[in-house]
Amino acid sequence: MTTPDNSEERLALYVDHENVAIGARDIGYRFDPKPLMDALAERGRLITRRAYADWNLFREDRRDMVDSNVELIEIPQRSDSVRKNAADIQMAVDAMELALTRDFVSTFVIVSGDSDFTPLVSKLRELNKRVIGVGLKGSTSAMLPPACDEFIFYDRLEGIPLREKRGGGGPSPSRSKKTSGGGKSKSTSTPSSKTDAAPAAAKSSQKQDLRKLERVLTRTLSGIQSSSAGAVQASNLKRALLRKDPTFNEGDYGFRGFRELLRHLADNKVITLNDGPAPGDPEVDFPSAPRDEDTAFQLLRTTVLELMDELGGDPPLSGLKDQLRKREPEFSEKDLGYSGFLQFCKAAVTKDVVEMDWEEEDQEYYLYVEDSEKGS
Q: More exposed terminus of the chain, fewer Cβ within 10 Å: N or C?
């Protein structure tokens, strides 16, 4: 019988569903709790999961919430202001009751962008509770993030679902080539792309499963490192994997133990292992030069240059990953420890591989290579 580790964080999740669902809808996304659950699994063990709304107004969201084991708290519809206050009050009362009666809950996750929850956050911190806020970047009050110990913007998480685009949702146009004048006329032609490029050469299902496991493990390791300052122990990494998928068992992949799996990944330069403070529990990290990182950056640069010539303008971030996979079907930024393609592109900008601009009017990133750098 396993006993809970007293060193791990115990989290309680409270969701102001109306606030985040409408905020996500306004910017073209659909609120799905799964990406958030994955991010929280890297931070600790979820004890309580509750979401508050008039669920008759959000019937299409019920299934996703139930699949993520979130308890649905019904707030009956009255007038807009009364319903809104009733949801806020009930959520605040439930959170404070748990904080006062369950000392073992160390972290509260408040999912809302509403500044009305700022006093609740302050009270929870007075009770020596850590508070993580979650909201949409465009609809979160400026007062709420500074009040929290950590704030996660939902629209920056990996894997959040888009709503269907209106008007057919055609491919994104390019921006005119970046010049000192910074023109913004659009090109009407774009290369065709597939949403998922199939691998050129078929691999056995066992090797494909192992490759998927590598990506889940590196993504989880990256998430733990981004949310904590200390070294990542192998035992903590396995607990995070189990929180994401309680059925995980390294034996399903042919390994006799978790350390044998880690040694296999270390031999393939996916991770590095160093002696930890506890015998048999090594520290896990990424190599100083991750496997194939330079090759991946060069692939990105070459693809951007080819698309600039083909489009007569700067290619948008949307659809760019598909273009890389057309050229290299095995490409995945997760193999390099990046949580998403945008993070990978930002790392490429930091290393002067490409340049990237945000266009507010288009709500889109555009990538390009400066004329002076094309020959280098």
A: N
